[in-house]
Known about the structure:
Layout (H helix, E strand, L loop, with lengths): L2 H53 L9 H15 L11 H19 L2 E5 L2 E5 L6 E2 L1 H10 L6 H12 L23
Antiparallel strand pairs: 1-2, 2-3
Amino acid sequence: MPVFTTLLLIFVALALLPLTLRSREAKREKRRASQLEDKFRLAAMACEVAFRDSFNVELDHTRQSIAILDSKVTSEWLQGTNSESQSGASKESVFLLAAYIGDVLARDLNAEWRRKNEQYILMFPSTTFEALPFELVQKKLVSPAHVDLTVEVNAIYEAVSPSPKPQPPEVPTSSFSDEPISP
């Protein structure tokens, strides 16, 4: 093979190397995101099972189920029947509750879990809004009577969901025309 052809092939290979590396990194990032989604989806299902077993209630991963979740968390922490209430919630409880809330938001609003600054957040497509389910759950468990998960989640829906644009009022059309009436 002539020297020129060899050099040309080496040059092309070097030129394509960054593309190959970027493609490989993109695949890794996609795999990490998928694993993160799976981790939170599994935790949300564990929360659902825990509520079914502990409180005999069904959480169906809908926006309305957040009210059930809020009610049970409030009654448990206010009544002090939960041993964790004295020393704060366990990391597992916070994780399961936050994962459930995040799963509801992810399903309804196409949010995606991301890791940012050493914490898990929800990112919403075509917006810059970020939700912090873990922070929300921690605030709820510290002050169950003063933090309403339903209100907080509804605020997230309002911040992310595009509000319907008001329709302009219809202009009444006249049934009369300017054309002369022919006999």
